[in-house]
């Protein structure tokens, strides 16, 4: 019997009540991974700044790559480990750069990760932050060509198999937005711009990638939400990115050019997808809704956007909480119709 495979999606930068902060969806991922054989998810779920958790049967897949995988265009090939290349923004100040390089040294020595020499972009990336009318965050890169050139050096000259990007993010962020986020009631102002950076690299280079922002140190905040507190533990958010990328599956971009491997994963093997109930408009979910994959929508995980499944013609199993979603997955994996477990059905 083939492995039961689920995909967990929490869209980036939309203020998800669970998964919209600093790794606060990791408990959800850990639990779901206990009831399925393979769990596919993305950095927004598994990155907790200096905190992370190794989930052996979870696959760390960047958002653009996740969309291509869900559409059936790309496959995933699990790996034992990746050689990670570090890409640093020229706009990072020397002291802040040193903090990140020391974090890399720590990951090599303490976690045994394989990390190449680093490359600094030939121009500052000049990241700018934006907020859409829906409240979702996004951003722009002033010098995307510089980002791509640095990544190509890491791949072609240094042999990197995955790329961790550290870009300098602006200090003049919207103070109200930052305070709301720190209090656990707003949208992550950085997440949307981070997605723009990683999407650009994965789209152009077809290699696992994740981003960690470089920020100026700030004084301690007295009313900090536990959901945001992971970002206050150190000088860099890099550790969780390095851990995730170390075992991120490689992309199979041209199926006919690869020798098939029994461990390869393709979209037609996805049994279930779990998403917030009002965030069903992602490319990945729209693709999966056209397949045999069962969609489970979680009402409690509210977001700033209002895109439910029904108006899009997506059939879903609606649940109130992730705890209820776990029960549905257990039933589905056992081949039991979840409706038979509800009194009166």
From TrEMBL:
Protein name per UniProt: DUF3326 domain-containing protein
Annotated source species: Nostoc cycadae WK-1
